[in-house]
Amino acid sequence: MTDPVQVVREMMRVVRPGGYAIAFEGDFAIDLSYPPCDGLASINKLWQGLFQNPAAGRKLVHYFREAGASTIEAGAVMHLEHDTTTLKRVYRLTAEATGPAAEAKGVLTGDEVRAMIAALTRMEDDPSSVVVKFPDMWVIARRSMVPLAR
What we know:
The chain is α+β, with helices and mostly antiparallel strands. 47% of the residues lie in helices and 19% in strands. The chain has helices at residues 4-14, 38-50, 56-66, 86-104, 110-125; strands at 20-26, 32-34, 71-77, 80-81, 130-132, 136-142. The protein has a three-stranded antiparallel sheet with strand order 1-6-3, with helices on one face. Helix 4 (86-104) packs antiparallel against helix 5 (110-125). The protein starts with a helix and ends in an 8-residue tail after the last strand.
């Protein structure tokens, strides 16, 4: 979104007075693994270079405050995977799907894309690897009983 505050203002406008607007947004800031995986650093670089607002999650509370929410509840959720490959597979598939766009935009070189995919494949294939996904941030905001200004 080019103007996330305007989007949240519109959410708050269409919610009835006293009603709630909810947002859930990833914050593509950190990805962790053990043993360390270089592919996670590359995919993070990819997200920083391709996504318009990769840090949107940490800004959600601010967006809702600016939009006039009267009451805000917020939090973050992180996921740790140690005994399955679902999250690891998602990372690899994401790298495969977005790597060409990152190369086309000059975010990563072709060699970096191939190395990222290879590293994420190794992480996915390693049953001992542990991965922690970037945090997802959430906000539940209440619209005041007073009509919002336009």
